[in-house]
Amino acid sequence: MLESTAMLTMPDLTQQAGWLPLVFALVMALAMLAYVILDGYDLGVGVLLRRADNEAQKDTMIASIGPFWDANETWLVLGVGVLLVAFPLAHGVILGALYLPVALMLISLTLRGVAFDFRVKARAQHKPRWDFAFHAGSLLAGFSQGFMLGAWVTGFANDWGSQIFSALIGLCLVAAYCLLGAGWLIMKTEGTLQLKAVRWAQGSLWLTAAGIAAISLATPWVSQRIFEKWFSFPNVVMLLPIPVMTVALFVVIARSLKRLPTRLAQNNQYGAAVPFASTVGVFLLAFYGLAYSLFPWLVVDRLTLWDAASSPEALLVIFYGVVVVLPVIIGYTVFAYRVFWGKSTALQY
């Protein structure tokens, strides 16, 4: 009798198998989106570091990301961790196919972290070497992430065309990170460096647009199912606002970058946040379009969320942990940005 009562009061884990993979897919997607935006701008600042005119400008650039860059990588750990524990089968397939770019990314992020700490303590004659290491680590990390994105979109195909496409997306993602980083510097700095950041953003804008266009064209090309999701009626009408809004945001960024030098020369900071905010909007729209295209597949046309998910019992245990951990990560992220918001000076706020 006691056993029957227990069976009646316990949750039906087999029914939970339907919604738990969706929850973890959402958490993983939000973690990766947060990583791309938050760590994207500080990777962009790292790539742009070599273009600074002097050490004072480099110090200001480093100071603008100093309180944030390390915590931003927490989102990458969360996203990959969810992939490992909630979707172990997909984790094996994805990281197995991306072994070399993943290894390159981890080496680059390690190099970047070491360089960030050591450049402050190094003697003057050694500081340029650590600056170069920080730049190289940021560049290689951004490229490897773009290469992985391209490979994922093409279903991990090994032909030369797919490899060239992945390399192109790697370059375009570096440009997108530079656009984010330049927009961040426009908000956080003043004077000559701020004006240089406007020029850096202008130089990165159209390669970023080319990358988004390439992903948008390639995604329906590699799968007939994705093609039908986008171009069947009435989907094509309902989804039309996504590319239209993306183009509109690129126009807003271009117009803002054209007008900003005149304003900034007069020490007028009105509109300084527009390039960064609009670039974030472009990333959000691109992410939404990609998520719509690939759902519910973790590996295109091979593994769905439910195929790759852990058992319902395991997912439920992990779910309780995520309920505790995720608000903590969001809380200290918001707190850090609130405390250190405002203009940056050389290694000082």
Write a short abstract of this structure.
This protein is mostly helical and 349 residues long. It has one domain (21-333). The protein has 17 helices and two strands.
Kindly state the number of beta strands.
2
Strand proportion, as a percent range, falls in under 5%
Number of domains: 1
H-E string: HHHHHHHHHHHHHHHEEHH
Give the overall average pLDDT. Answer: 87
Which structural class matches the secondary elements? mainly alpha
Explain the overall architecture.
Helix content is 81%, strand content 1%. With 349 residues, the chain is mostly helical. It has one domain. A two-stranded antiparallel ribbon has the order 1-2. The chain is globular and about 55 Å long.
Keywords:
349 residues, mainly alpha, two-stranded antiparallel ribbon, 17 helices, 1% strand, disordered N terminus
Helix and strand layout, with pairings?
Layout: H1 2-9, H2 13-16, H3 20-48, H4 55-65, H5 69-72, H6 74-86, H7 88-97, H8 99-121, H9 127-153, H10 160-188, H11 191-222, H12 224-231, H13 235-239, H14 241-265, H15 274-294, E1 297-299, E2 303-304, H16 305-308, H17 312-339
Antiparallel strand pairs: 1-2
